[in-house]
Design a protein that fits this description.
Layout: E1 11-14, E2 31-36, H1 40-43, H2 46-54, E3 58-62, H3 71-83, E4 88-93, H4 95-109, H5 117-120, E5 131-135, E6 147-152, E7 157-162, E8 170-173, H6 183-201, H7 209-231, H8 236-249, H9 263-275, H10 279-293, H11 295-308, H12 317-334, H13 351-362, H14 375-384
Parallel strand pairs: 1-8, 2-3, 2-4, 4-5, 5-8
Antiparallel strand pairs: 6-7
Bound molecules: 5,6-dihydroxy-NADP and zinc ion.
């Protein structure tokens, strides 16, 4: 096991009807900017619950943060934060609204000229404007981590940012919110969280027995509840396990002391930036090719995953590892998620070269747990995913 430090300061308030507890969490004298997305919260009652809990607090609202939070839209919110002297941000939404809020938290205190530099130059945020979240879509884990991913349509870029200053002060997780989520987004949430675990697990054995079993138990839970969640989002038992699994998949715990990969996400973000494909679906496109291409380096963990998560008992290490990849593809398909780039766009020729060139230009010359996945290898993986 590798050395590690672990601190996660986010307070989680989990459970049925927990949105009303928001009133206890807002700091005194807060001047709040309430941030939300395309308006789903106004149809499903979450907005009304939030407003009721905020009572007489001073609140300004900013709606319209799109899926894959857009830099240009966020700059409008930044202007409001500055002119209105906002001192607390409240994100009510999924990963996109929460990530957008993290960007604003960082940008509000950033002293440089262009906030995009935080992303382009990978500037860590040590201190941000404080914010809390009311999660409406289990998927990203953004409600309990300090990372964010921001999109810029102008340049077709999608880049990550983060730092210890970007943990939410609190996150309210009421599993009942999933009842209004469209099936496509439920499937996305299940696939995204599942792949978050894979990124922190599918590397090489490192003697971290507990972390491996944390990871396996999250994947087993997602596999178990996925059909229930899709069939009946009002099934509270399934919803609550789904929601907590998504948070636990990316709140830092399972990555401590182990090597991590994250190449699937790095490549996937490019597919969203280039084609607008839903984040989770880009992962389902890239992960199978990535694991096949890196089979030799990853086969011990692939086989462990095959045995423990998919209960494969027959065959040697290679057989089990290979079958485990097939099981993963079948799982994505069972969620209704296609796993080839050509399922999403007819315009895929040249994509592999474009992504490889972008990685070269950014100096991303060695991704993955061995920092050895060079742009030419990325190109091959993307081609395999056509
Ligand atoms: O915009 P609204 O109207 O709210 O509708 C949203 C949106 O259309 C809708 N929705 C959310 N909650 C709902 C609901 N509809 C009905 N009922 C509800 N309760 O769902 C749609 C998708 O929302 P979005 O927030 O975009 O989804 P998700 O949570 O999957 O977030 C995706 C973004 O998070 C980033 C992704 O790259 C992407 O930009 N990620 C963030 C991570 C992080 N911060 O740690 C890690 C992830 O790997 C990921 O990269
Ligand atoms: Zn993800």
């Amino acid at each position: 096991m590798n050395n590690f430090e672990f601190k996660n300061p986010t307070k989680i308030i989990f459970g049925k009807d927990s949105i009303k507890k928001l009133e206890n969490e807002i700091p005194e004298n807060a001047k709040i900017l309430l941030l939300y997305g395309g308006g789903s919260i106004k149809k499903n009652g979450i907005y009304n619950q939030v407003k009721a809990a905020l009572g007489t607090a001073t609140v300004i609202e900013f709606g319209g943060i799109p899926a894959n939070p857009e830099y240009a839209v966020l700059l409008e919110a930044l202007e409001i934060i500055k002119t209105e002297n906002i001192n607390f941000l409240l994100a009510v939404g999924g990963g996109s609204v929460i990530d957008g809020t993290k960007f604003l938290s960082a940008a509000a205190l950033y002293e440089g000229l262009t906030p995009w530099d935080i992303l382009a130059d990978n500037i860590r945020t040590e201190k941000g404007l404080p914010f809390g979240t009311v999660l409406t879509l289990p998927a990203t884990g953004s409600e309990m981590n300090s990372g964010a991913v921001i999109t810029r349509a102008e340049t077709k870029e999608k880049l990550s940012m983060g730092g210890p200053g970007l943990f939410p002060e609190f996150s309210i997780l009421d599993p009942q919110v999933i009842t209004s989520i469209p099936e496509r987004q439920l499937a996305n949430g299940l696939a995204d969280a599942f792949t978050h675990v894979l990124e922190q697990y599918m590397t090489y054995p490192s003697g971290a027995l507990l972390q491996d079993r944390f990871a396996e138990s999250i994947m087993q839970t997602i596999i178990e509840v996925a059909p229930k969640v899709l069939k009946d989002p009002t099934d509270y038992q399934a919803a609550s396990n789904f929601m907590w699994s998504c948070t636990m998949a990316l709140n830092g715990l399972i990555q401590k002391g182990v090597p991590t990969d994250w190449a699937v996400h790095a490549i996937g973000h490019e597919l969203t930036a280039l084609f607008g494909i839903d984040h989770a679906r880009t992962l389902a496109v890239i992960a199978p090719s990535h694991y096949k291409y890196n089979f030799e380096a990853k086969k011990d963990k692939l086989a462990q995953y095959g045995e423990r998560v998919w209960n494969i008992t027959e065959g040697n290490t290679d057989d089990i590892a290979y079958l485990a990849i097939e099981k993963t593809v079948a799982f994505f398909h069972a969620l209704g998620i296609n796993t080839k780039l050509s399922d999403y766009t007819k315009d895929f020729e040249g994509t592999a070269e474009t992504i490889s060139q972008r990685f070269t230009d950014r100096g991303w010359l060695g991704l993955g747990e061995h920092q050895s996945l060079s742009p030419d290898k990325v190109e091959k993986i993307v081609k395999m995913a056509y």
